[in-house]
Structure formats: C-alpha cells, structure tokens
C-alpha cells in the first residue's frame, strides 16, 4: 500500500470517525434530515458549495475546456453557479418560510398526497444517478493511486460513504462539508498557484478567439438548450433545497446560497483555466478526463499532490453524501411514511437510515454498470427536472392557478417528452421541449382544478 493511498484512507476514515461522533445528535427526523434547521453562516455556505461541487466540476470542466475551449464548459461551472445564485435570489427565502422537510412536502401542501408521491418518485432517480456518478469517480481516484482494481476501489468508496451518511444524516453531512469544502478550496488554489508560476494565466491572453467562444460551432438555440439544463435543474434540485431548508433563517438561506454560488464559480474557474491552456503544458492527445490529475502529478510536489487528491476526494464525498441523503429522505418521508401514520421519531430515524443504505447500495450497482461519470451526471441533471420546476413555481406563486390535475400533467408530460425525445427520437432540444410540454400541460389543465385534502401534517 503506497503513501498516497494511505493518506487518502486516513482522510476518509477521519470523515467516518466524525460522522460516528455525531451519530447521537439527531433525535428527530427533522434533526436527521435538516440538522434541526440550525445551520449558521459557515456551515450553510460550505454545505451548499461542497454539495454541488462534485468530481465532474474538477475533472469534467478541465477536460471539456481542453477539448472544446470555453464552449465546452458553459454547463459547469457557469450554468450550475448561475442556478445556485438564482435559487438564492428568488426561491431560498420563500421555500424556507414554508416549513418544509423535503421539496415534495411543497407539492403535498399545494396539490395533495398523490402529487407528493409522484414528485418524490420522479426526483429519486436524479439523486441515484448523481450518487452513482460520484461513487464511480471515487473508485477511479482510488484505483489510479493504488494497486486496487476498479471493482475493489468502487466497493470501498461506496461502503465508507453509505456508512457515514446513514449514521450522521444532515448534521454529519454539513460538518464534513465544511471540512471537505476547505480542503477542496485549498487544493484547487494550490493548482492555481502552480499554474500561475508556470505562466499559465499569461497563456490565456494569447489563446485564439475560437478557444474563448462561448457558443463554439453550435447555434444559439443549441447553446440555450445545453445551458438551461444545469441552471433550471439546480433551482429544482432537492440536494440544494434541503440545505436551504436546514439554515437557521430565511435571510441566511438567501445570502448563504448566493455566496455559495459565487464561491462555486470562483473555484470552478481554476480547472477551466487549466484546461484551456493544457495543450501548451501537456501537449495534444491527452485523455481529457486525465488533464487535471496529470497536470497535478507532473507539477506538484508529493505533499501538494496528496493535498490535491484530498481536494478531489472532498468534492466527491460531499456530493455523494448529499445525494444519498436526499434519495433516502424522499423515499422514507414522502413515499413510505404517508402509508404508516403515527410513527414515533425513533422509527422515522430508522426508516430514513435504512432508506439511505438501500439507495446507497443501488447507486453502487449503477456505478459498477455505468461506462462514464459524465454520462451519469448529464442524465441526473435533466431527468424530470423541468416538470418539477414548473410545478414548484406555480406552487409558490400561483396559488389560484391549477391544482392536482395541472401538477400531474406537468410532471408526466415533462418526463414522457424528455424520455421519448432523448432516447427514442433524438430531439435536437429534448430539455427545452420537455419544459415547454410541462408548462403547456399545466396551463391546459388549470380548468380542472379542485380542492384537495392534506392527508398528513408536515413534520416541520
């Protein structure tokens, strides 16, 4: 076992030990899923930032910039950063004031229990795919730094994160996010310093115009299609919204989310800059997914290279734990618990922890069968999110417009059109088409509005 792997394993075990130390802190379901709604400024900001800043932001952004120039990275970091900021500006405080535990609770209060369950079922695959992408990336990092095979590495990665997420819930997630976010920022900016010392930022000024074109060889409508996925899916993402709901006040929910989005952009620009000038430093013909790690390995001393790998592992751990917690909470809180009223808080905790373990194992199996991290991330962002967004906007600001029929129509139309357009008929603009279908379905079914009876009081 080499020194690099030993250091990574020590860091991983430190996260696990911290989660175990916090295992007794959650006493209620709200404690477990929302940390008792008590996250302060530091925990709140770093939790949003670290949850959304995954391995694909480092590895994928540098690789896409290397291959395609600036046009390859409009989704990450630019699209996702904008989505986080928009969530903070327009949605965070309003969502916080609703006293929700999960995003699906909003749909129950506005449209009824049936829509709540359907929304949860639509959102769970998004979190599963997102978690699987991180598990696969984690396994690849371990495999590349040791003699472990990819199967053993992915198995080890999945086991550790499933364990510490199930044990500690949002408390462990938020506190480890703070630790992981700090390590991540230090590691990325260590790369930035080395890049600057090697003249990398000066090389940016001499890049040809086509490398700095946002549009590239795409049409403007194609650019909007690609850009809309990260922006709109981030606004409707339960992983981010759960962090918003866990903060201690609506004012903090707004300011911390906006700050996290700006930090996301600032840190995410470093892999982009490196990818843009990597040809001058690494030459052509490099595997795009290896650009960042190869530059780090060739230019960082061993201590700083280990720090860089720690940053990469931090990005993966924080995103993975958040996705597993969301998948478990949607299944336990919004699908199973309505069928079993009057559960004790202890039983609710056990149910949520069991759901995290179940979906962790399922994500692990998906990771083993997938061919790439990038494909998993793309699918997780686009799958069903347009219908969730439409129903969410009308639930928040269109109280008199539409009811359960409209919400059902938006969710079903969004999912159906996207699956058909993306997998069967290869629509040129599958996401925008699914968004238009969701909005049209919601509006057309407004006349069929009827009152519903809320079948369960919010756990908030």
From TrEMBL:
Pfam families: SSF. The lineage of its organism: Bacteria, Pseudomonadati, Pseudomonadota, Gammaproteobacteria, Nevskiales. It is a multi-pass membrane protein. GO terms for cellular component: plasma membrane. Keywords: Membrane, Symport, Transmembrane, Transmembrane helix, Transport. One of its GO terms (molecular function) is symporter activity. It is found in: Membrane. This is Sodium:solute symporter. Belongs to the sodium:solute symporter (SSF) (TC 2.A.21) family. Signal peptide: none annotated. The chain crosses the membrane at residues 78-96, 117-138, 150-171, 178-200, 220-241, 262-282, 302-330, 351-369, 381-398, 405-425, 431-448. InterPro entries: Na/Glc_symporter_sf (IPR038377), Na/solute_symporter (IPR001734), Sodium:Solute_Symporter (IPR050277).
């Amino acid at each position: 076992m080499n020194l690099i792997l030993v250091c990574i394993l020590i860091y991983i075990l430190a996260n696990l030990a911290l989660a175990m130390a916090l295992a007794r802190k959650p006493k209620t379901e709200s404690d477990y899923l929302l940390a008792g709604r008590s996250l302060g400024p530091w925990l709140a900001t770093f939790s949003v930032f670290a949850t959304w800043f995954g391995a694909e932001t480092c590895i994928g952004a540098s690789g896409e910039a290397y291959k395609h120039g600036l046009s390859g990275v409009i989704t990450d970091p630019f699209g996702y950063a904008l989505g986080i900021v928009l969530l903070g500006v327009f949605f965070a405080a309003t969502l916080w004031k609703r006293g929700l535990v999960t995003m699906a609770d909003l749909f129950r209060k506005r449209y009824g229990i049936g829509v709540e369950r359907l929304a949860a079922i639509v959102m769970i695959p998004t979190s599963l795919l997102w978690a699987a992408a991180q598990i696969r990336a984690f396994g690849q990092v371990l495999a590349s730094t040791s003699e472990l095979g990819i199967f053993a590495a992915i198995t080890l990665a999945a086991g550790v994160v499933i364990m510490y997420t199930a044990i500690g819930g949002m408390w462990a997630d938020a506190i480890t996010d703070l630790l992981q976010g700090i390590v991540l920022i230090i590691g990325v900016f260590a790369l930035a310093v080395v890049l600057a010392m090697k003249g990398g930022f000066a090389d940016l000024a001499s890049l040809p115009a086509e490398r700095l074109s946002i549009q590239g060889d795409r049409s403007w409508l194609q650019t909007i299609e690609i850009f809309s996925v990260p922006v709109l899916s981030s606004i409707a993402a339960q992983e981010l919204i759960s962090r918003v709901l866990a903060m201690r006040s609506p004012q903090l929910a707004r300011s911390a989310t906006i700050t996290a989005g700006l930090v996301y952009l600032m840190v995410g620009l470093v892999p982009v800059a490196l990818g843009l000038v990597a040809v001058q430093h690494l030459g052509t013909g490099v595997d795009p997914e290896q650009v960042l790690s190869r530059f780090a390995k060739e230019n960082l001393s061993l201590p700083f290279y280990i720090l860089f790998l720690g940053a990469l592992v931090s990005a993966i751990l924080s995103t993975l734990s958040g996705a597993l917690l969301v998948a478990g909470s949607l299944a336990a809180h919004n699908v199973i618990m309505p069928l079993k009223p009057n559960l004790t808080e202890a039983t609710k905790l056990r149910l949520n922890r069991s759901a995290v373990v179940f979906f962790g194992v399922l994500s692990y199996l998906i990771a083993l069968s997938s061919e790439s991290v990038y494909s998993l991330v793309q699918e997780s962002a686009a799958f069903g999110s347009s219908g969730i967004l439409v129903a969410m906007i009308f639930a928040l600001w269109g109280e008199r417009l539409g009811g359960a029929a409209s919400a059902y129509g938006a969710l079903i139309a969004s999912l159906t059109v996207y699956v058909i357009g993306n997998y069967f008929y290869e629509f040129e603009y599958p996401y925008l088409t699914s968004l238009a279908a969701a909005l049209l379905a919601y509006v057309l079914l407004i006349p069929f509005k009827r009152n519903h009876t809320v079948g369960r009081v919010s756990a908030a």
